[in-house]
Specification:
The chain is mostly helical and 109 residues long. It is built from four helices and no strands.
Length: 109
């Protein structure tokens, strides 16, 4: 039997639980504690991404030997030197992507 087209459909208990869980998560995301954790996690993910793509850590040279930890330590040192240089000179390390709509808005202003 099909529901009446003019009568609103009542949510099932499972849908209600999902909605309440989403509401709890969204309200938790507004706290300062969650924002601090998210900022820390974003910083760590940025360093890992930089190590993987900019420095090429995924393609390390010494797969089987004892030299792999040395390469990882030198890669970490190179990343730290690059970040310290960017901080001391005041240059932004990465540019923020601008959406096409935001680019059009700034071009129109």
């Amino acid at each position: 039997m099909h529901p009446h087209p003019l009568r609103p459909r009542q949510p099932t208990p499972n849908q209600r639980q999902i909605h309440e869980a989403l509401h709890r998560v969204h309200s938790a995301q507004e706290t300062t504690e969650w924002k601090e954790q998210c900022a820390m996690r974003a910083g760590v993910e940025g360093v890992i991404s930089q190590a993987a793509w900019a420095v090429g850590l995924r393609r390390y040279r010494y797969c089987v030997t004892d030299k792999a930890p040395r390469q990882h330590a030198l890669t970490a040192a190179a990343i730290n030197i690059g970040r310290a240089d960017a901080w001391l000179t005041g240059t932004p390390y990465a540019s923020t992507c601008t959406s096409r709509i935001a680019g059009l808005q700034t071009a129109a202003d």
